């Protein structure tokens, strides 16, 4: 099982209060902890080793306990193993035989809200590295599509620079975080605009080859593409919340955002407007379905703000966003029906 270490740096004067709180929640969360004095003698370091599924609940309890000032600090980092092992099987067996089972507080096996936010924020902020990654992935995708080479196109899919800001947008919608929404949307807009401009330029200069299978299949949107985008988006969000980056590669390939966008630009640059519209429709369907599936999966994973007023604000923001994405998807389905007729 995945483990986390929560390190709490607190003034020595608060030792008894912190220890009492940790001891109260220890039977439910099944963690181990100890305290170590720091060099200056004024502060203590409490280290808590626990299952990743309990991290969010424990952090919520600590956040409610502390009046946050500069004298407190909590750091979360992964642990490879602990000996003796945390007896998770015994804990699950005890819960299964309980006469009055406790209500599930959201221990869904996901990483904590704070870890998730930091991970998503890293890929949602506009940076020089992000712009370079978009440039390189776009060039790889353009070459792959023009050469009708699946292996090269998969290389562009795996780079997947547009996936990060979309996940950030879905998380921001779930938490009602306006700042993260702005940053993720700005990053996504820059990435889409840069990739599209490069693709249009390549289409103007090089045109598009005839009988190109990879380009042709991305100029048509089927109803199965909607299902695929929804399922892949949900799988991607689960992978992110579990903190298992290696599993994300398959999602990047299944949920292809760059290839249809590049195909749209290539067709438009070469003057094939109908095919450009079809590829643009596929790209829009993938973006909308990813965000819809992302919000739904985050909610199902129990990712919500801590305070009640943030929860109320997030609930309203999530509802508005879900209605907007659903309306856009309905419009795109209508366009698909018109195109088939």
TrEMBL record:
Name of one Pfam family that matches: DUF389
Keyword Transmembrane helix: yes
Keyword GTP-binding included in the entry's annotation: no
Transmembrane spans: 130-146, 152-175, 187-206, 226-244, 251-274, 280-300, 321-338
Domain of life: Bacteria
Keywords: Membrane, Transmembrane, Transmembrane helix
Name used for this protein in its record: TIGR00341 family protein
Organism whose genome encodes this protein: Pseudodesulfovibrio mercurii
């Amino acid at each position: 099982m995945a483990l986390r270490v929560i390190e709490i740096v607190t003034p020595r004067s608060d030792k008894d209060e912190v220890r009492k709180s940790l001891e109260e929640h220890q039977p439910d969360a099944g963690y181990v902890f100890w305290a170590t004095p720091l060099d200056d003698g004024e502060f203590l370091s409490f280290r808590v080793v626990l299952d990743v599924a309990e991290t969010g609940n424990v952090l919520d309890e600590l956040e409610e306990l502390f009046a946050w000032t500069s004298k407190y600090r909590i750091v979360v980092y992964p642990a490879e193993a602990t000996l003796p092992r945390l007896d998770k099987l015994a804990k699950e067996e005890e819960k299964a035989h309980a006469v009055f089972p406790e209500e599930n507080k959201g221990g869904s096996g996901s990483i904590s809200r704070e870890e998730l936010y930091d991970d998503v924020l890293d890929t949602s902020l506009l940076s020089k590295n992000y712009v370079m990654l978009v440039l390189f992935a776009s060039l790889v995708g353009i070459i792959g599509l023009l050469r009708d080479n699946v292996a090269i196109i998969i290389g562009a899919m795996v780079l997947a620079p547009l996936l990060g800001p979309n996940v950030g947008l879905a998380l921001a919608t779930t938490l009602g975080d306006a700042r993260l929404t702005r940053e993720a949307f700005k990053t996504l807009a820059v990435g889409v605009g840069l990739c599209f401009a490069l693709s249009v330029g390549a289409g103007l200069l090089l045109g598009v080859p005839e009988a190109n299978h990879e380009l042709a299949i991305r100029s048509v949107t089927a109803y199965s593409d909607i299902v695929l985008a929804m399922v892949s988006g949900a799988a991607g969000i689960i992978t992110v919340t579990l903190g298992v980056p290696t599993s994300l590669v398959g999602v990047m390939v299944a949920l292809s955002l760059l290839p249809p966008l590049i195909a749209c630009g290539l067709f438009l640059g070469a003057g094939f407007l109908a095919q450009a519209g079809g590829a643009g429709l596929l790209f829009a369907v993938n973006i909308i379905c990813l965000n819809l599936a992302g919000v739904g999966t985050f909610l199902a994973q129990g990712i919500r703000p801590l305070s009640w007023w943030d929860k109320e604000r997030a609930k309203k923001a999530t509802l508005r966003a879900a209605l907007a994405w659903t309306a856009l998807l309905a419009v795109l389905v209508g366009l698909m029906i018109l195109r088939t007729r």
